[in-house]
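Reviewer comment 2.1 asked that we show a complete input and output for one of the modelled complexes. We chose the flavin-adenine dinucleotide case, as it is the one discussed in the main text.
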Amino acid sequence: MLKQTILRLERCATASRRGVYEKMKMMPLFGNYFRSMNRTQTSYSVPKERVDCIVIGAGVVGIAIARALALKGREVLVIESAPTFGTATSSRNSEVIHAGIYYPRDSFKATFCVRGRDMLYEYCSKHGIPHKRIGKLIVATQPSEIPKLDDILNRGIHNGVDGLKMIEGVEAMKMEPELQCVKAILSPLTGIIDSHSLMLSLVGEAENHGATFTYNSTVVGGQLEGNEICLHITETNRLNDQNGTSILHPEFVLIPKLVVNSAGLSAPALAKRFTCLQSGVIPPSYYARGCYFTLSNTKATPFRRLIYPLPEDGGIGVHVTLDLNGQVKFGPDVEWIEGVDDISSFQNKFDYSVTASRAGRYYQEIRKYYPNLKDGSLEPGYSGIRPKLSGPHQPPVDFVIQGEEIHGVPGLINLFGIESPGLTSSMAIADFISTRFLG
Ligand SMILES: Cc1cc2nc3c(=O)[nH]c(=O)nc-3n(C[C@H](O)[C@H](O)[C@H](O)COP(=O)(O)OP(=O)(O)OC[C@H]3O[C@@H](n4cnc5c(N)ncnc54)[C@H](O)[C@@H]3O)c2cc1C
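Response of the prediction step:
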């Protein structure tokens, strides 16, 4: 993979800048891809090419889909606006392999999480991806929370999550001496994963099966011509002077047989720029930032398992996460934020800052289950933004996967609202798409 990247970079550096098509060929990966393809004359004043499958967005979900399509023998081109893969939500999460407990029965979230979890464990073991099945405790810190804990347990059991067990507070506190709780659900199948290693492995495998990844390239819109979807693409750098109201002229147009809009936070905004889509099919989108604080000043790691309080509106509570290096993180909270304009969202220009002043609420929340948390031990970490389809105080909404049968556009698949457990579900979503839409 490194060798390919170097070759591409060399090609990029030595290519002449003679025109848009030349430019396209010298953009990372387009050179390779277009060598095997025929150009077609079109009514556009920009070059236009036919391709087999396009995946928009190289987050963990897009990458998993690209791999699944490539393994089925399809020619795959992944178009990513950032300079490399996995720089958006896929590198700003808890890195937890969820068991599949919280989600409504038979929802995509429940089904994909349970299946994706098993696929992920199997993939990690086979490919040497660092991960650990460390288990988790969901805790009630006062008796009034116990009925909610019962509901969560029942939901998990209905979702087919094996090994769940309600335990008394004393037993949980024996397992985790720093913990304070009155009752807990033990989830032995929950784990942690090095998500970057996962993505690296999936990218490598996709490339080995012929998929091509192009970076610094942004899909800025699309339209139907006859029965075919035409995607408008430009170099990401060209967007620097634009804003959400700009009309964007593509540098080139691609006509795929199949295109998967897996643009994460930007997927709804991008769909709005597909003139062939009725606005009614694009769900309203909301953004909920979640910040993490890391634990410092504490000699030993206080917990061996993940500790989760009861879920809150918009998230699953400020929990304890451990990474594979033993670093303890607390988060994410839920802060509803305004989105940026669509062009800025394609460039991932969201506000990811974590201000130290937020720590106050964290101390309060964490001490409900970890009373020995010392003053001054929380340091601002990082944040991620949830691509949500429901707003404050609204019930959670399932993942949305739309094919032609919903929006009427042949060959287009939209993925909306792929928030948590999207990392856990990634391989199951990919399998679903490559089976359902390719047969
Ligand atoms: C705070 C937080 C904690 C989480 N914790 C967990 C967890 O512990 N376990 C779990 O299973 N899930 C978790 N998730 C969810 C998980 O991280 C996401 O579901 C998953 O990463 C989504 O991957 P994606 O590929 O859909 O999106 P992304 O990773 O956002 O990828 C989308 C890609 O599309 C690119 N893009 C955007 N617009 C364009 C365009 N116009 N043209 C080309 N490219 C474009 C972006 O640059 C980006 O690389 C968490 C999420 C958050 C926010």
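Residues 1-22, 33-44 have pLDDT under 50 and may be disordered. We note this here for comparison with the apo prediction described in Section 3.2.
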